[in-house]
Amino acid sequence: MDDNDARSSDRLKGLGKRLASAQHSIEERDGKPGNRGSAYSFGFRLASDLVVGVLAGFFIGWGLDRWLGTSPAFLLIFTPLGMAAGIVNVIRAATSAEAKRHLEETRADGVPGVPDDEDD
Amino acid sequence: MAATAEQSGSGLAIDPMHQFQVQAIVPINIGGIDLSFTNASLWMVIGLGVIALVLLSGPSRLVPGRLQSVGELAYEFISGMMRDILGNSGRAYFPFVFTLFMFVLAANMLGMVPYSFTVTSHIIVTFALAATVFVGATVIGFIKNGPGYLRLFVPSGVPILLLPLLVVIEVISYFTRPISLSVRLFANMMAGHTMLKVFAGFVVGMGVLGGWAPLAMMVALTGLEILVAFLQAYVFAVLTCIYLNDALNMHH
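Predict the joint structure of the above. Result:
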């Protein structure tokens, strides 16, 4: 009797797990159109943030040098600063995206921070 | 895009950049300033016309027709996105973000029509849009927070020695916003359309026997470009909301 109970509760648990994963895959299919596309656009966003940071630093330095006739002092100062700004932008965007993903995951599973990559 | 066919009578004499040329249709010159009605202006007007057609077509019914469904879908899509990012404080800015999204989307999608002109493939157009967003968000930030908006540039929990350096980096990062916003849209549209044209050139250049491979590639690329056209409009709207969010709900 006891054994039977344990087994059925095990099966219930398994069923719950399968239901959750099915629900998850349905949500993935229907809820977020163009998931791969948004990954593409997110990647492009990060790349352009980085490149634009470097370019902006370069042109700020170059412009200041031209204006003040101090070539290449400001160029050398602002290009690394621009790189740093680009990296800050990328880190910030990635962190907020990661936080959002984490939030969605915990909301979907009810269990915080459990990766559910077993079935996919 | 299909214009390649007539230009390339002799081998591969194709200019993939020809499609981006701005040509005056009605030359207007007032006080030495060129205000001509160009093909770019024409396609902006067509874009507005398409948006008006989708959003204002007939009386709104309880059971929506096709065009009305499209309009409602777009409305709900953007309003949901704004609720996610801005919360309830962003309701007032919905008309602005929705207009931006619809305009960019219409311009991108109309660019996929053969022989059309892609307005958003010109950086001055995308930069004008991005600069509006940037200046607007900055002004709103100062109105809502007063001089306290400058705290955006001061990261918290940083040793005092590093602070000046980090403030400079934050300021640069703030000013790269309109640049990256405009460059992203412009580069995507321009690169995609150039690529389509180059492949179209291959189709013509390789003739009946070899042209099928690039033709198949073009079909796939056209699908990709339509996806990109939609995604870039969406990304533009999302980033506008993120910048507005910095201005409205300041807490770092």
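Strands of chain B lie at 24-26, 29-30, 33-34, 37-38.
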